[in-house]
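G., the chain you wanted modeled:
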Amino acid sequence: MVGIIEVAERAGVSTATVSRALNGKSHVSARAREKVLQAARELGYVASSSAFTLATGRARNIGVVLPFVDRWFFSAVLEGAVNALVARGYDVTLYNLSGGSDHRAKVFEDLVLRKRVDGVLTVALKLSDHELSKLTALNKPIVGIGGPIPGARSISIDDEGAGRLATQHLISLGHTQIGMISGNPASEMDFHQPYLRKTGYHEALLDANLDFQPQWMAEADFTIGGGYYAAKQMLGDPRNAPTAIFCASDEMGFGAIQAARDLGLRVPQDISVIGLDGHPLGEFYGLTTINQKTHGQGEKGANWLVDLLENGTEKQATNIEQLSTWPIDIEVRASTARRTPEKE
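Predicted structure as tokens:
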């Protein structure tokens, strides 16, 4: 079996340089790294994970914990994180918490007790004091995505600001009768995104001296079907229908567009619709959206975690409370337009 010595001889470098190059360390010149990688390819060398673990005490494995894997937001974050981790030479252990509170407790016990991971990346989960203390006691750095985690590093968009920006866009187009399809209580995650986005909507209306109309507020479950049903009820009475709708997710926005069309309404001539996410199908639907660059959040979180493991001291890798606010952009497409005067 080809070993690190043979790779070093073929590349004309030391075994230490081979080790640093193959493990993604930064203290290797680009030329030396390429020579090592070329030699490893030519010799068919495969690094031994067990040897690395014995030498460093790390498994080059990251635990990713999320509540769902079959919903777009979570799968998009997961894809971005896995791509980044694989590029950095790390394996991934996935923990899906869709089984409820008992399942969650078991997952965190196994994750901690087996010590199979070097660090933990969480998605839309606020760790309990007990969960956080266990991981911290074993020197497991944590990075969370989707909201602030007391005592840990995290990445999050400003959900309240996103809701405000979406509503302000509609106001800037002259709309004064603006509805919202928010997440329902059953869809609330640990960080209460539906509530925060609704708060931003209300704040934008107040800032513009516009009244809030309860009949222009609906709740759905972040799905196309949920958005379709909510929008159809909201737009079904032409005597008291809004001229614009802010949907708290793009998928609900897709449903709202379809509901409007089924009612004989033109988008955006009769009704403007804006979503929030940056879903890849948004371009197909022509949906104006607040893009939160979900895939990039996964990449950022994964790289942040690996940097803590590889480039930081043990003290620097200790969990501390630090929030990185993730940028959002508005992407204006065909689903929003200036208010038609005769509509109001």
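DSSP finds 13 helices and twelve strands in the chain.

Shout if anything looks off.
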